[in-house]
Specification:
The chain is mostly helical. 56% of the residues lie in helices and 0% in strands.
Length: 77
């Protein structure tokens, strides 16, 4: 519940109340990864479809899941 609430940008307790889910205890703070993902998703909304596809393919390449090859010019490399 907490991570999903973080992705939506709402308080976990409020989301539980809105959905009718009873929380047995006060939810812990959102995991940093969930907060980072929410911020990333919010920023991605400004990309065009082509830009989003490029970012997706670049991420796949960085993970090793792509047949395409990208050359990254990173500072200090």
């Amino acid at each position: 519940m907490t991570d999903f609430a973080a992705l939506l940008g709402v308080n976990a307790g409020e989301l539980a109340a809105l959905t009718g889910i009873h929380l047995r205890e006060v939810p812990p703070p959102a995991a940093p990864g969930a907060v980072d993902a929410a911020v990333l998703l919010w920023e991605v909304r400004r990309l065009s479809a082509g830009q989003a596809e490029h970012v997706t393919e670049l991420a796949r390449c960085m993970r090793g899941d792509s047949t395409r090859e990208y050359v990254l010019n990173l500072p200090g490399s």
